Predict the 3D structure of the following.
Amino acid sequence: MSEKANTGRTTGNNLDPWYHHYAQRTAGLSASEVRALFAVASRPEVVSLAGGMPFVSALPQDLVTDSLNRVMRDLGPTALQYGSGQGVPALREQILEVMALEGIQGSADDVIVTTGSQHALELVTKLFIDPGDVVLAEGPSYVTAMVVFNSFQAEVDHVPMDEWGLIPEALREHIASLKAAGKTIKFLYTIPNFHNPAGVTLSWERRLEILEIAKQNDILVLEDNPYGLLYFDGPPPQALRSVESDGVVYLGTFSKTLAPGFRVGWALAPHAIREKLILANEAAILCPSSFSQLVISEYLKNADWKGQINTFRGVYRERKETMLSALSEHLPELSWTNPTGGFYVWLTLPAHLDSKAMLPRAVTELVAYTPGTAFYADGGGRQNIRLSFCYPTPESIRVGVRRLATVINGELDLLETFAGTGSLDAVRTPRNSFPPSDMH
Ligand SMILES: Cc1ncc(COP(=O)(O)O)c(C=O)c1O
């Protein structure tokens, strides 16, 4: 291919010969910081506190193997065939049982099985977003949801949170000012339980208030709940969808409570929306994997899946406690959130430290994390770090936090040297302050 594309525009130095052919929305498909990190963090000598991989080794292999064998023995031709674009009916019924644990009552008719909840996120965005439409999302928010929103040319508007989750008053203010600016708000994307990355849970009172605000303003709520069943002590408040069925699209997944390798998630949609979601699902993938769905269905039928979720809870609870105690030991002057479930701790650095700029140094010290900037569409998050405790063993977590402390203290020493003040008081943050000063 020549340096000049068919459009007649020169491609300059760009090495991609198709540079000028891409649709405009492709510009939103930039590689996330998390993605770039995986390559580095997967080196065995690096302790990765970066990724959100569930600890699937806690799942006894024979549980899965038994289900696999039964599917192949009893349902082989069906499992290997195309299936319904909406998903296997028996599994959709079982999904209702899973959601009932979060207070949700629905109909299997309104469940659409997708290729992970990530795919449901993409389908809902595709159905609703025109370029320039606004998606309201917590600040910070789940990085790969924002990649989807950007790829459909949505504008992401971050609404601040505190330790009780999204702040309703701030939501009201954001809606009012966006409307005054003539913007079209299409939906509110929220992760109410054990938030990724902030680790906080939306209180019950706020759930009710946020639903009311959404209703008053005719805004759809997209409730993303991958972690709700992975609580440490008591369950989180019931789902937003348990209160409101017409204005909420609920997303669930087997990725964290079973295994992400199956790539099975789902949407529970208001009846009016579900037909379009099924059509969008069919257009994208024809049907979700019959094989994966049937294996999960067998597993739910025959295995003690609730007991297995309890096992996962115990594993993650221990890791969270290890991480928090290592942080208290090695970085006692910093602040962080204390999640009551899920995978993540959100750490606030001393003022003037930059989580993104510090990352190469951390990798040199053989520890990886995700800089807070990955979780904002607007450049926020420099003073924050997401630490994941789901995958590394407790021992690795201790090593990782110790290395992180070396990096942070090294940066502070540098800062002190250059500031020449001899005092660090000005750059240290008060313990357990939330929200961090740059959460906007
Ligand atoms: C908040 C959130 N939503 C959605 C997903 C996607 O999960 P999956 O596609 O595996 O169901 C993740 C995965 O980490 C997540 O953290």
Notes: The mean pLDDT is 91. Residues 160 and 440 are 5 Å apart (CA to CA). Residues 26-52+307-416 form a domain with the Aspartate Aminotransferase, domain 1 fold (CATH 3.90.1150.10).
